Give the backbone structure.
Amino acid sequence: MAKKVLIIDDDVNTVKFLSVALEENGYEPLGAYDGKEGMEKITTESPDLIILDVMMPKKTGFALFKSLRRSEEYKNLPVIMLTGVAETLEDLDSQSESTFERPYDSLREKLRVTIKSLKEDGLVKPDMFIDKPIDPEEVVAKIAGIIGK
Amino acid sequence: MLKRIPIFWKLSFAFFAIILLVLALCSLFDRCGEALLGEIQFIIITIFVSLILSCGASWVIVRSLIKQPIQKLARSMNRLTEDDSDVYLGEDEKDEFSLLISSFNEMASKLAKSQKELRNNKDFLEGILESTADIIITVNPDGKILTVNSGAEKTLGYSRTEVISKPIEMFFANPRDRQHALAQLEILDNVVNFKTKFVKKDGQIRDVLLTISRLRNRAGEIIATIGISKDITREKQLQTQLIQSQRFAAIGQVFTGLQHSMKNMLNACKGGAYMIRLGLRKDDRKMFEEGWEITSEGIDRLTDMSLDMLKYVKEWKPNLKRVDLSKTLSEIHRLIEKTAKDRGVNCKIRLLPDLPGVECDARMIHTAVMDITSNALDACDWKDYPENESPEVIIGAFADEYDQEFVIEIEDNGCGMTEEVKANIFTPFFSTKSKIGTGLGLSITSRMIEIHDGRINVESVPDIGTRFRIVLPINCLNGIKEKTNGEKSPDNR
C-alpha cells in the first residue's frame, strides 16, 4: 500500500505540483490549504509524513507542528517544514550574529525562539527544513530518505 | 620723636649745631690760642678748621640723610624693573624720604598685585592653549609660524623648534587650501570650519576643520593670524564607515526582501516547469497545460513585481481634479463585493451623505483603497473565526467637521497585526503573505497618499481586526504643486 504524504500549504500551486511528483513516485498525496484543514486531514487520513508550510492562515505551521508534537498519537510523525527562511535556520544552534538588521531577522528570531521552546518543552524539532523555491524531485528524494518508498 | 621731624628741619638743626660747635671751638681757641699764636694766624686756623669741620659734617649729613635713601630707592626700582615684585622698603622715619618710600611701597604693592593677576591670566590662557588637543598655530603677516601649542606638536609630530619661523604652508597637504582660506578671511572676520588636510611629519594626512582669525594690535594693525584646527580624521573615518554600513544595510534589506518575494514566484516557475517536463515525457497534455499555467502564474507575478518596482521608484505626477470620492468608493465596493462574497467575506460600504469633493488624483486614490481593501480580505482569510463571528470588511468615508479633511476608513475583523508587523507594513518587501502580492503594495499606497499631503493611520489588534484610515486634505492643490514641481520646491533646488 502506498505511503500517504500530506501537503499542508495555502499555496495551491505548491500542493498541486508536489502532489504530482509524489504520485509519480508511488506515494499517495493528500492536500490541505490551512492549518485547521491540515489538522482535520491528519486525524482522518493518518498520513505517514507531513510537508508543512510555516506561514499559513488560520493556524500557522509552527502552531500545528507544536500541537502534533505534544499529542501522544502524532508526536513521532515525520514532518518536513517548508519555509522561505530555511537558510536562516542553518545557524540555529550557532552563536553567529547578523551584522545588519534585516526585515526578516524578526522572523528568524521567531523561528529561533520557537525551535528553542520546542527543545525546552522536550519536543523533537522538524525532521527537515526545505527552502523555497523547491525542486519537487528533490523533495521526493528526501521523503524517501525519511519514510522510504 | 626724632623720626617724625622732616628732613629740612633735620638739616637746619645739623647746620645750626655745626655753627654752634665752630663758635664753641672759636671761643676755646680764642682763650687758649691768642696766647700762643698771633691774631691773624689764629683767624686763619680758625676758618680753616671750621671749613674742614663744616665739610665733614655736611658730607656725613648728606650721605646718611639723602644719598643712602636715594640709592636704596634706586636699587629697589631696579629690582622692580627686573620683575621682582617682592620689594618692600622699611619706613623707619617720617620725613620726606619716608613719604617717598611709602609711596614707592604702595606702588610696588599695586604693581606686585597687577603682576600676579597678569601672571595668573597668562598661566590660565597658556594652560588653555597647552591643554587643548586642538592644533593652535599663530602665523605672522609674512606667513611664518610664530607659535605652536602642544596639541599641534602631538598631532603633527613636529617639535616647536622645528617649525618656528617656517612657512605655515608646510602643514597643508595642498598649500592652495591656505590661500583659499585667506581669501575668505579677506571678506569675513573669521573663517570657520574650513575643511582641509594637514600633513604630519611622518607624511600621514589628517583631516582637519580649520578656524582662522586675525590678531590685531590696539591700532588695528594685523600682527598675526591664529588658526585653530580640529583633527577630525577619526570622526571622518567613522562617518564613512557608518554611511557605508547604512548603505550596505539598506541594500541588504532590499535584497533580502526582494529575494523573499521572488522565492515564492520562482517556486511556482520551478514546480510548473517540473510538471511541463513530466507532461512532455508522459505525453500528458493536461499535465503539460497545468504546469504551463503554474509557470505562467509565477512569471506574471514576477512581471507584476518588476512593474511595481518601477512604479515605486518613478516620479509621481498626480493628475489633480476635484473628485467625488463617494463615487470612487462605491465603484471599489461594487468591484470587490463579489470576490469578497466568494471568499466568504461580507463587504459593506458606509458613506455619509453630502460628502465634499476632494482635490486629488482619483486613479491613485482608487489604487490605494483597492490595495488596502484586498489586504483586508486577506486578513479575513487568515483568521479562524469563532462560530458567533463572520468575516466582514467595511469601507466608509466622512469629512471632518470643518470640511478640511476627507477620511476613508477600511475596517476588517480579520487576523489583525502585532505591533512589530504594524510598524513595518509600509517597508518595501516586508510581507507576511509572500505567496501573493509583490511586497510593494502598501509601500506604493503610502507614497500615493503622502503625495496628496495625506496620511495613513493604522489601528490593529491581533485576532480582533484592523482599521486603516486614509486622511486626505480636501484642498491640497497648492501643497501638491509645490511637492511635485521639483524646480519650484525650495527643498529640491
Q: What stands out?
A: Chain B touches chain A at residues 245, 248-249, 252-253, 256-257, 260, 263-264, 266-272, 274-275, 278, 287, 290-291, 294, 297-298, 381-384, 415, 420, 424, 427, 429-430, 432-435 (CB under 8 Å). The longest strand of chain B covers residues 205-216. DSSP finds 13 helices and twelve strands in chain B.
